[in-house]
Amino acid sequence: MTQTPSQSLYIYNSLSGEKELFKPIHPDRVGMYVCGPTVYSNVHLGNCRTFVSFDLVFRYFKHLGYKVRYVRNITDAGHLENDADEGEDRIAKKARLESLEPMEIVQRYTVDFHETLAKFNNLPPSIEPTATGHIIEQIEIIKKIIDAGFAYEVNGSVYFDVLRFNQSHDYGKLSGRQLEDMIANSRELTGQSEKKNPQDFALWKKAEPKHIMRWPSPWSLGFPGWHLECTAMSTKYLGQQFDIHGGGMDLKFPHHECEIAQSEASTGQNPVNYWMHANMLTLNGKKMAKSTGNNILPNEIFSGNNAILSKSFHPTVVRFFMLMAHYRSVLDFSNDALVAAEKGFMRLMAACQMLSKIDSKETSSWDVAAWRQASYDAMNDDFNSPILIAQLFEAVKYIHRLADGTESLNADDLQLLKESLHAFLFDVLGLENVVQTDSGNKLAKTVELLIAIRNEARTNRDFTTSDRIRDALKDNGIILKDGKEGTEYVLE
Ligand SMILES: [Zn+2]
C-alpha cells in the first residue's frame, strides 16, 4: 500500500465555534469518547446517523495511521425522562410495560443496537463500557465534587450546585447559554423541589421503593444521574483530559455542559480538547417522531416495509446517503433522495469494476496525485465526506475516459488510483461493494441473460424483441453498449 501522506487535519470544535488544527495529546494516538445509546427501544435512524458520522471519524484517524482508542458507552442504568430529575427511568418503565426484568430490556436492545450498526458496517468501538458496571467510579466522582464544595446532599440525593460552580467557572460555555438567562426563563418555581436552584442537576438520586435499579452509596440506596456516567467512563479509559468527545447535537445541553462541569469540579481540569456534534436527521422535511407517524426504523428501510418507501435499500446505500451530507448539516431523509443515492452508489461501484479491467499506458494524461491530495484535503477539512464523494465522482469521469482511451495513465499512476479509490470507498467511507456480492451479482447475471437473449434475437433478425430488451433496460437505468468484443452494459 502506498504510504498515506502526512496530513493536517482541522476539526470544528463546538467549544470554540471554530475549525482548529488537530493536535493529539499523545503523538500518533487519539482518545475519543462518544455518547452511546440508552438501550430501552430499537435504535432509531437519527442515532444511526450519529454513529455512522463518528465511525467515519474513527475510520479516518485509523486510515491516517493513528492508534485510536474509541470509547462508546451503553446507558443501561436508565435515566429519568425529565432531565435527570423527576419521574420514572426509561428502562424501568419499559420493563414494567413489557413485564420484563430491566436487564432483559437492556440485553434485548443492546443486541438490536449492535446488529443494526453492524449492518451499516460500523466498526465496533475499542471499549464499550456500561453505566451499571461503573457505579463505584461514579460514586467516587460525586465524593470529589462534594469535597470541592460544588454539590450538596438533600434527603439522600446529591445535586450539583450550578450557581456555586458558575461563580468560579463558566457554566454554559459549550452551549453558549448564560446562566442568568436560564434562570430568567425557568418555569420551575424555587422551593417546589428539594434542589436549591432549578438549574441544579442530580448526581445521585435516592430510589423510590418501586424503583427496581438501585445501588448502595454513602447517601442512600439509589442510582446515579445520567450525566455522571459519561464523565466516569470517559475519564477512566481516556484520562482526565482526552482528545475528542462526540455525540448528537441534542446532547450539547444539558448533557455535555454538565459533563464539563462535573470534570472541572472534580479534577479542576477541562476534560476535552475537541467537542464534536453530529446534526439531526429529518424525514420528508419534518422532525422524526413516533407520535406523529413521521418515523422509520432502519430495518424497515432494509426490508422496504414502510409506506413512505417505494422499495427496499441496502444498508450500505443508506450509509452512502448519510455520508453524502456533512455530519454538521441537517440531513433530510426521503424515498427520492435514497433512490438518487442508490444510483450514484451503483455508478461508483460500476466504475470500480471498470477500473480493474483498464490497462496502463506509457504516459499519464491525468494528475492522479493531485486528485488524491484534493480528496485528503476534503477529509482534512472537518471530515467533509460530501466533498470527498464529489472527488470520487470526478475519478469516475476519468475512469470512463481511461476506458474509452481519451485519457491514459502509466502503471504507477494507475496503481495509485486503484489503491486510493479502494481506500477512500471501503476503508474511510466504510462502504461495501454489494454490486459484486449479493444483489449486484444477481443483477449482473440477469442483465447478462437478457443480453444473450437479445443477441439470439438479433441473429434471427427479430429486431422487435432485441429493441424491446434494450429499451426496457434503458428505462431501468441500464445502458447496453454494442462493441467489437460483444455487448457491455453500464449503469446510468
Ligand atoms: Zn454521554
Low-confidence stretches: 80-85
Number of helical segments?
16
Helix content: 40-55%
CATH class of the largest domain: Alpha Beta
Q: Enter the CATH topology name of the largest domain.
A: Rossmann fold
End-to-end distance, in Å? Answer: 31 Å
Strand order in space, largest sheet = 4-3-11-12
What's the CATH superfamily of the largest domain, by name? Answer: HUPs
Q: Average pLDDT, to the nearest integer?
A: 91
Shape: elongated
CATH architecture of the largest domain: 3-Layer(aba) Sandwich
| Ligand roster | zinc ion
Largest sheet: 4 strands, parallel
Total number of domains: 3
Radius of gyration: 27 Å
Number of strands: 17
* Class of secondary structure makeup: alpha/beta
Content of β-strand? 15-25%
Notable traits:
single chain; 492 residues; alpha/beta; Rossmann fold; Isoleucyl-tRNA Synthetase, Domain 1; four-stranded parallel β-sheet; four-stranded antiparallel β-sheet; 46% helix; elongated; binds zinc ion
